C-alpha cells in the first residue's frame, strides 16, 4: 500500500516518518517547494529531536519521497493522510481552508478508490464536510472513505509519542476502511479505540482541553500556595499519587503555550457557543493561563524593587524545552511586560530565536548564558531546558549585578541556590 501525506508541517512529517518506520512506502506532499527541497536533502524544516536521523534513514531506504506535484501524488497513492494546518480564525474558530483545498484536490484528481485519513485537529463534523467536499469536486462517482484518526504528538517528544501512542483513535463508519487503517498500525502495540468520526474529532479537543485544565488548576492553586507558604510541587506529588488523578501535567509554572492548547481550546469554546453551550470551566482555564505569568512577575518585581531601569536575563523562550517553537510562549509575554516597564532584556535559548523585528537596543539575544547573564539584576527562567538545570549556577552568580533568580518552571533546587547566595523565588512556594 502506498501512502500520501498532504501537508509537510510538524504533524505531517512526523506521521510520514512513523509510517516509513513501520515499513510502508510514503510520499510527502506540500506546495512549498523550498520545504520539499529541504526534506528531500535530509533537512527538517523545524527542530525535533530524533526526527532528522529517521528522515535520513528513510531517504536511504527509499521508503520516503517528497513532492509538490499533486496530480501524480494523488493518482499513485490509495491512502491519503490529511495533515494540513487548521489555524485559528479571528473569532477563535478553526479555519478549514487548507482541509477544503486538500479535499477538493483529491476529489478532482482521484481515478480509483481512496481512503482519506484526517490527522489534522478539526472541529466536530469535519469528517462529514470532507466527504461532501470530495463528492462535489469529483467529475464522476468514484468510491472513497474518510476516517478520523487524530494525533496526540507533543513537540519535543514527537518520535516517542508516534512510536508508542497511549491509544490509536479511529473514527470510522466503514468496517473495511477500519481494517485498512488498523493494518497500517499493526506493528504498534497501543490499544485501538474504534468509534464514530464525530466522537474521534471531539476526543482530540477534549483531551487537550483537559490537560490544559489540569495545568491551570495547579497554576491557580500555586497562587494560594505562595500566600500559605506551601510548596506547590510537594502538593503535586501527594495529589498525583492518587491513581484517579495521575502524576502528569500537574507542574505549576508561568502557563502553557504552543500551537495546540491555546488554539484547540478556542476552537472548542467556539464550537460550544455555536451549540448554545458555555464551557465555563474552559473560560477560567484560559483566564488563569493569561494572567499566570503577570501574577508572579508582580511578586518578583516587589522582591527586586522594580523592573524599571533594571537589566533582566530571560532564559528559555520556546514554549517548552526541546523545540524551537515560540508560538504563544509565556516568555514572549514576559519579555513584552519587561520592555513596557523600561527594563533592558537579555535573552538566551539553546535553539529558539526571537524574530528579528522584536530585537532592539533594549532587547537582545545572546549565544551564551554567560554573556546573557553578564551585569543583569535578575534572571527569569521560562522553559526547562536540561542545560539550564545542569549549569554551574554557583559560578554564574558572579556574572550578575544582583543575584535574583526567578524560576518560572520550578526547575532548580531553590535551597541549594539560596545557599550559593541567590535570592531564589519560583512559582507557588514559600517566600522565605
Ligand atoms: C500538546 C498535547 O500534549 C499533545 O497531545 C497534542 O497533540 C498537541 O498539544 P505540546 O503543545 O507539544 O502537546 O506540548 P505539551 O507537552 O502538552 O505542553 C504544552 C504546554 O503546557 C507547554 O507550554 C508546557 O510547558 C506546559 N505544561 C505542561 C505545564 O505548564 N505544566 C505541565 O505539567 C505540563
Morphology? elongated
Measured as a percent range, the helix fraction is 40-55%
Bound molecules: uridine-5'-diphosphate-xylopyranose
How many beta-strand segments? 14
CATH topology of the largest domain: Rossmann fold
- Runs with pLDDT <50, length 5+? none
Largest sheet: 6 strands, parallel
How far apart are the termini? 63 Å
Q: In order across it, which strands form the biggest sheet? A: 3-2-1-4-5-6
The average pLDDT score comes to 97
CATH class term of the largest domain: Alpha Beta
Task: Give the number of helices.
Answer: 17
Q: Can you say what the CATH homologous superfamily of the largest domain is?
A: NAD(P)-binding Rossmann-like Domain
Strand content: 5-15%
Number of domains: 2
Supply the helix-strand structural class: alpha/beta
CATH architecture verdict of the largest domain: 3-Layer(aba) Sandwich
Provide the gyration radius in Å.
Answer: 24 Å
Structure notes:
By secondary structure, the chain is of the alpha/beta class. It folds into two domains: 2-193, NAD(P)-binding Rossmann-like Domain (Rossmann fold); 196-432, NAD(P)-binding Rossmann-like Domain (Rossmann fold), CATH 3.40.50.720. Helices cover 44% and strands 14% of the residues. The strands form three sheets. Strands 3-2-1-4-5-6 form a six-stranded parallel sheet, with helices on both faces. The model has no long low-confidence stretch (mean pLDDT 97). Uridine-5'-diphosphate-xylopyranose binds next to helix 9.
Amino acid at each position: 500500500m502506498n501512502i500520501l501525506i498532504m501537508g509537510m508541517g510538524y504533524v505531517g512529517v512526523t506521521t510520514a516518518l512513523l509510517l516509513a518506520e513501520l515499513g510502508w512506502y510514503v510520499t510527502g506532499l506540500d506546495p512549498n517547494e523550498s520545504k520539499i527541497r529541504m526534506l528531500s536533502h535530509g533537512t527538517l524544516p523545524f527542530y525535533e529531536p530524533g526526527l532528522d536521523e529517521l528522515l535520513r534513514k528513510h531517504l536511504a531506504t527509499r521508503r520516503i519521497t517528497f513532492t509538490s506535484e499533486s496530480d501524480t501524488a494523488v493518482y499513485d497513492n490509495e491512502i491519503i493522510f490529511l495533515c494540513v494546518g487548521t489555524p485559528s480564525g479571528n473569532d477563535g474558530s478553526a479555519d478549514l481552508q487548507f482541509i477544503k483545498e486538500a479535499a477538493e484536490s483529491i476529489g478532482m484528481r482521484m481515478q480509483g478508490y481512496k481512503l482519506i485519513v484526517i490527522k489534522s485537529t478539526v472541529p466536530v463534523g469535519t469528517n462529514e464536510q470532507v466527504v461532501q467536499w470530495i463528492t462535489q469536486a469529483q467529475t464522476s462517482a468514484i468510491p472513497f472513505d474518510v476516517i478520523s484518526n487524530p494525533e496526540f504528538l507533543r513537540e519535543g517528544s514527537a518520535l516517542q509519542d508516534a512510536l508508542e501512542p497511549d491509544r490509536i483513535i479511529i473514527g470510522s463508519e466503514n468496517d473495511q476502511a477500519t481494517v485498512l487503517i488498523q493494518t497500517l498500525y499493526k506493528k504498534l502495540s497501543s490499544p485501538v479505540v474504534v468509534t464514530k468520526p464525530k466522537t474521534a474529532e471531539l476526543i482530540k479537543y477534549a483531551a487537550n482541553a483537559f490537560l490544559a485544565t489540569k495545568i491551570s488548576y495547579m497554576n491557580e492553586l500555586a497562587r494560594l500556595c505562595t500566600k500559605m507558604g506551601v510548596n506547590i510541587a510537594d502538593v503535586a506529588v501527594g495529589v498525583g499519587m492518587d491513581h484517579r488523578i495521575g502524576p502528569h501535567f500537574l507542574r505549576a509554572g508561568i502557563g502553557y503555550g504552543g500551537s495546540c492548547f491555546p488554539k484547540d481550546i478556542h476552537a472548542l469554546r467556539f464550537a460550544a457557543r455555536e451549540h448554545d453551550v458555555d464551557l465555563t470551566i474552559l473560560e477560567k482555564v484560559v483566564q488563569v493561563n493569561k494572567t499566570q505569568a503577570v501574577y508572579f512577575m508582580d511578586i518578583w518585581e516587589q522582591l527586586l524593587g522594580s523592573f524599571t531601569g533594571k537589566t533582566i536575563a530571560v532564559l528559555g523562550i520556546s514554549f517548552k524545552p526541546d523545540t524551537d517553537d515560540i508560538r504563544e510562549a509565556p516568555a514572549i509575554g514576559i519579555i513584552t511586560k519587561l520592555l513596557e516597564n523600561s527594563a533592558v532584556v537579555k535573552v538566551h535559548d539553546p535553539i529558539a530565536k526571537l524574530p528579528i523585528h522584536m530585537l532592539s537596543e533594549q532587547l537582545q539575544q545572546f549565544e551564551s548564558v554567560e554573556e546573557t547573564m553578564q551585569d543583569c539584576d535578575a534572571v527569569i527562567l521560562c522553559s526547562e531546558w536540561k542545560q539550564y538545570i545542569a549549569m554551574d549556577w554557583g559560578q554564574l552568580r558572579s556574572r550578575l549585578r544582583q543575584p535574583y533568580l526567578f524560576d518560572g518552571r520550578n526547575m532548580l533546587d531553590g535551597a541549594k541556590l539560596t545557599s550559593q547566595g541567590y535570592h531564589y523565588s519560583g512559582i507557588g512556594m514559600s517566600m522565605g
